[in-house]
Amino acid sequence: MKLSIGIIFCFLVLGVSSQRWSTFLKEAGQGTKDMWRAYSDMREANYKNSDKYFHARGNYDAARRGPGGAWAAKVISDARENIQRLTGHGAEDSKADQAANEWGRSGKDPNHFRPAGLPDKY
């Protein structure tokens, strides 16, 4: 009972409608697909020094979906980097990855990180 009252209160105070929640969730799902596509392309390309480009591109594509996509990109990016830190990967590389992630999420052109010679397919 207290939970349902709390939820109703939040909807009233925050002015969140079910339409906005469904839009947010749709954007988050689409953003997740964008992140997966960038990861898959990175693995397929297997191109030296292209990691930052694919980080920026995945975040850029997801964030263009809207607030839900930007949220999904941040959650996925942060989780990936935190897992890498826990497994002992370099903190310096993780910091550079996060900079590329933020670059893309902020709407800046991911081609800034594109390595010379990467096939146009990507």
TrEMBL record:
Residues 1-18 form the signal peptide. SMART domains: SAA. Residues 85-122 are annotated as: Disordered. InterPro entries: Serum_amyloid_A (IPR000096), Synovial_Prolif_Regulator (IPR052464). Keywords: Acute phase, HDL, Signal. Belongs to the SAA family. Major acute phase reactant. Apolipoprotein of the HDL complex. This is Serum amyloid A protein. It comes from Galeopterus variegatus.
